[in-house]
Amino acid sequence: MNIWAHRGCSQRYPENTLLSFEKAINVRGLAGIELDIQLTRDGHMVVIHDERVDRTTEGLGYVRDYTLAELKRLHIYADENPVQQIPTIEEVLDLIEPAMRSGMRLNIELKNSVYPYEGMERQIIDLIHTRGLQNQVVYSSFSALSLEKVRELDPETEIGILDTKVSDCLFKLQGGCGANVLHPYWQGIDLPPERLRGYTVRAWLSGHLYPEKPTGTKLDLSALEAKGITDLFLNEPEMYAD
Ligand code: G3P
Ligand code: CA
Questions:
Q1: What percent of the chain is predicted at pLDDT more than 90?
Q2: Model confidence, pTM
Q3: Which atom of ligand 1 is nearest to the CA of 202?
């Protein structure tokens, strides 16, 4: 089973922060890191999951209504660790690029199914190509329309279609949205393993996030593999380090 750090090491550290990504690059045997991108009012790509800043910072309102400078004034508290900020994708790449060049992969989820941030596909693909990291990246989105654009802009890249049920992922993939791998919810495996054979099936969990306390529960990876899952996005990948 390939293990990915979902929003970084997001159970023990605040999700989608430089701290959570720094911890992730130090987890032995990790296949990759997942993160979410959105656009600020002045067109910067920032790494944050929710469309609003309320849950993870002391701010209120939508990411798209803030300039980058305004977002940078918000705080993300991390217990005894230094206070974090919402990072730009460039800041995250600066941190993780050496690990990527040593084989770690990066799943960039375009968080654009609620607000279809105009031009974000081109912006992120240009940035990844400028840095020469295209072979290490997989793009994903819940928006099939967005993935169609990604495919047009980057015919070679790996693209994951996100949905709850693996059958919906597969039908959208077969419908030509440009995706070539499946990113379903881990409890949405509603097809027999034979139907999934030959596909990369990267499943995501909705598990506990910082500052909730870790549960200590460990998943039975071989049971999940038997269902056809090849990769898992986990909030606590440290539990599964080699
Ligand atoms: O990309 C997998 C997973 O991150 C999708 O759900 O809501 O955690 O972004 P979400
Ligand atoms: Ca995500």
A1: 97
A2: 0.98
A3: 2
